[in-house]
């Protein structure tokens, strides 16, 4: 019975301390509570190019065939550039008739839309892919995103760094009194979202989880096609925070 009451008292006291704003290291009964943070940074190893496919015509078959041919051309360009088949994702082509109807209540035109995503592991391929797609007028370039191929591994490394920091702080605190660190009684983890930094030449910087560079070639002649800025990806970072309750031996 005494042991039960003692356990209940510890739980109530620990819960109250966890909610209150307190220092990063604090003592509760025979337990040491530590708050710590960790971070892992890495260069991005995956670039994702997104292209829009769009075709409109009064004839349904012509509109669909035009969109299908554009999709096939961007896939062929990706394969020619060296991308593997599993790195090319072709979305479903969707059909939308015009809401304006003629006298016979038929659609005046049909619009077919789709999307193609290209995953690039060798960043030197990004330039040829952009140039080839835009110069040939195959599709419209939407965005370029840099990320990590294995995000879960980056999160695990951030958590490990946070735990190492927690153990180090707890050990240092107990060393002052000659006590030793025991087992972990409680742990609460919080892994934050990935943050990437991309710099565009010219001094413009953008920070976001997914960095996007937008451009459109609609209505622009081949001689007037824009020059896409050179994109230099920055570090991708993921951070984690941990609250641990260690037993004091």
Word description of this protein:
The chain has 249 residues and is α+β, with helices and mostly antiparallel strands. It has two domains: 23-44 and 150-209 and 227-249, Protein of unknown function (DUF541), domain 1 (Translation Initiation Factor IF3); 46-147, Alpha-Beta Plaits (2-Layer Sandwich). It has four helices and eleven strands; from the N terminus they run αβββαβββαβαββββ. The chain starts with a helix and ends with a strand. Mean pLDDT is 75; it is low at 1-23 and 199-227.
Q: Could you list the spans in which at least 5 consecutive residues all have pLDDT below 50? A: 1-23, 199-227
CATH architecture of the largest domain: 2-Layer Sandwich
First-last Cα distance: 23 Å
CATH topology of the largest domain: Translation Initiation Factor IF3
| Percent in strands | 35-45%
Q: Specify the CATH homologous superfamily of the largest domain.
A: Protein of unknown function (DUF541), domain 1
Strand count, sense and barrel status of the largest sheet are: 6 strands, antiparallel
- Assign the CATH class of the largest domain: Alpha Beta
Write the element-wise H/E pattern from the N-terminal end onward: HEEEHEEEHEHEEEE
